[in-house]
């Protein structure tokens, strides 16, 4: 079963919203998650850890530290799902 | 109430992770959960890395230990870790209580896939781990384990009490 980029983006948005404490409606694909007020590196890593568990994937560290926007996170998730 | 691990039938087992007989070990105790197994732990300065920080390798040990015991308790087979990946989210601090929660993926007979999270008192994720395990029969690893025949029988029955011939 494949998961579409739209579905991945929706799931990533939900997890990101919960982890950084903002309503999902405030997050767009182009939102820079690291730039959201109150977001630090721990919150970003907790979001990544939740995403990895949700999709049962292991993201490359270079990808984890290279992404900032919701769309970029969704893209590396899609890449990891494709590699499974 | 903590669950008794099968190894405890050996009066002097020395597992670094879970034996109460190893003075240098972590002495982890495990508690059953509907979806897996939980271990609470607080490490002192004997397990320190940077001042005040628990050595990161021990986070891996605790995750491995909790997943490994979940496997033997749930699948009734001992297993060796064949690969493990840990994501460190935030340092663990000496003297603070944390809990490790392990779960198993439902699939897999030849290889078991487990994962674990280490959480702080507020439920924040401090580390995650995913690992793969290969089950083994005690008889097939006799050259690696220091167990006599009586101990193999005892341990086999403890690991899988319902088997007709657990060895």
TrEMBL record, chain A:
<dbReference type="InterPro" id="IPR009081">
    <property type="entry name" value="PP-bd_ACP"/>
</dbReference>
<protein>
    <submittedName>
        <fullName>Acyl carrier protein</fullName>
    </submittedName>
</protein>
<dbReference type="InterPro" id="IPR020806">
    <property type="entry name" value="PKS_PP-bd"/>
</dbReference>
<keyword id="KW-0596">Phosphopantetheine</keyword>
<dbReference type="InterPro" id="IPR036736">
    <property type="entry name" value="ACP-like_sf"/>
</dbReference>
<dbReference type="GO" id="GO:0031177">
    <property type="term" value="F:phosphopantetheine binding"/>
</dbReference>
<feature type="domain" description="Carrier">
    <location>
        <begin position="6"/>
        <end position="81"/>
    </location>
</feature>
<dbReference type="Pfam" id="PF00550">
    <property type="entry name" value="PP-binding"/>
</dbReference>
<keyword id="KW-0597">Phosphoprotein</keyword>
Automatic annotation (TrEMBL), chain B:
<dbReference type="InterPro" id="IPR029069">
    <property type="entry name" value="HotDog_dom_sf"/>
</dbReference>
<dbReference type="InterPro" id="IPR006683">
    <property type="entry name" value="Thioestr_dom"/>
</dbReference>
<feature type="domain" description="Thioesterase">
    <location>
        <begin position="52"/>
        <end position="127"/>
    </location>
</feature>
<dbReference type="Pfam" id="PF03061">
    <property type="entry name" value="4HBT"/>
</dbReference>
<protein>
    <submittedName>
        <fullName>Thioesterase superfamily protein</fullName>
    </submittedName>
</protein>
């Amino acid at each position: 079963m494949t998961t579409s980029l739209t579905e991945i983006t929706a799931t990533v948005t939900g997890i990101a919203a919960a982890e950084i404490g903002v309503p999902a409606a405030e997050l767009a694909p182009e939102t820079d998650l690291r730039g959201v007020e109150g977001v630090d590196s721990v919150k970003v890593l907790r979001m990544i850890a939740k995403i990895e568990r949700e999709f049962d994937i292991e993201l490359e560290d270079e990808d984890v530290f290279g992404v900032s926007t919701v769309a970029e996170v969704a893209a590396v998730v899609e890449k990891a799902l494709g590699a499974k | 109430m903590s669950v008794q691990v099968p190894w405890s039938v050996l009066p002097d087992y020395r597992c670094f992770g879970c034996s109460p007989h190893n003075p240098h070990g972590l002495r982890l105790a495990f508690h059953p959960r509907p979806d897996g197994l939980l271990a609470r732990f607080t490490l002192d300065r004997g397990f320190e890395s940077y001042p005040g920080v628990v050595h990161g390798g021990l986070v891996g040990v605790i995750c491995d230990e909790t997943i490994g015991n979940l496997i033997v308790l749930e699948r009734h087979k001992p297993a060796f870790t064949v690969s493990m990946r840990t994501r460190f989210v935030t340092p663990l601090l000496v003297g603070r209580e944390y809990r490790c929660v392990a779960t198993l993926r439902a699939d897999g007979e030849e290889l078991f896939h487990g994962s674990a999270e280490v959480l702080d008192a507020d439920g924040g994720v401090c580390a995650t781990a995913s690992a793969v395990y290969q089950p083994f029969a005690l008889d097939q690893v006799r050259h690696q384990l220091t167990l006599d025949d009586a101990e193999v029988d005892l341990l086999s029955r403890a690991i899988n009490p319902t088997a007709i011939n657990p060895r």
